[in-house]
Write a structure and sequence with these properties.
With about 220 residues, this protein is of the alpha+beta class. It is built from 6 helices and 9 strands.
Length: about 220
């Protein structure tokens, strides 16, 4: 006897399409939810997520599991009540998403002090979500080179708060107004100021008496594989 073909849930596919676009694409939703991009792509073709995956998706986009399944009860409460209909779970829900931050170029970062309004969506090819800062002009950069190893390696994404006060030992994005922005550790030693790479193969820059500006302080790091 032939097995009856199961038709895809078109309403669920529409909701998946909605949250995928809201997150900034499948790659961004994958990072937020921890679900492989290939699995998310399968959902858009009628695949069915498991219970932990539903919970992870709901948390990632600040929706309820009920909304993902039925389209009802859109807003997620600060409890785990929306998972009760699926039975107990050992999945731990993370903190809420607070800010959407653009990944910009190092050249753009050098001029960041000139930015007044929040970054416009069309000016960045990629965005990340972070709970590390609420500042509307926060931005992110992709680490280049090995000067900040071993703490930061090439490809890491760092989030920068442009108004956080820079203190001794902070990792900062700085500029002298002539070159593109640079990523170093800020070090005060008495009346002297230094920009220090973490990799000892690179020289420490003595900035004492030299005009430069702190564009922002690094508040988070995201590692990609």
């Amino acid at each position: 006897m032939a097995r009856k073909k199961v038709e895809p849930d078109l309403a669920f596919i529409e909701r998946m399409d909605e949250i995928t676009k809201e997150a900034g694409g499948q790659s961004a939703l994958s990072r937020l939810s921890g679900i492989p991009q290939s699995t998310l792509a399968a959902y858009l073709k009628g695949g069915e997520p498991t219970r932990p995956q539903l919970i992870a998706l709901a948390k990632a986009v600040n929706r309820t599991v009920a909304w993902l399944l039925t389209g009802e009860n859109h807003v997620r409460k600060n409890t785990d009540d929306d998972t009760n209909s699926l039975g107990p779970s050992n999945v731990s829900l993370g903190p809420p998403i607070l800010s959407r931050v653009p990944i910009i170029s190092w050249v753009q970062a050098g001029d960041w002090a000139e930015v007044i309004d929040p970054f416009l969506p069309g000016l960045a090819e990629e965005w990340i979500y972070t709970t590390a800062t609420k500042h509307p002009n926060a931005f992110a950069l992709v680490v280049h080179g090995d000067s900040m190893e071993p703490e930061f390696v090439e490809g890491d994404i760092i989030t920068i708060d442009p108004e956080k006060e820079a203190i001794n030992g902070n990792y900062v994005i700085a500029s002298n107004g002539e070159d593109e922005a640079t990523f170093k550790q800020l070090v005060f030693d008495g009346s002297s100021v230094f920009l220090k790479p973490l990799n000892p193969r690179y020289p420490i820059k003595d900035m004492t008496g030299i005009e430069f500006r702190i564009i922002g302080v690094v508040v988070a790091k995201e590692k990609r594989y």
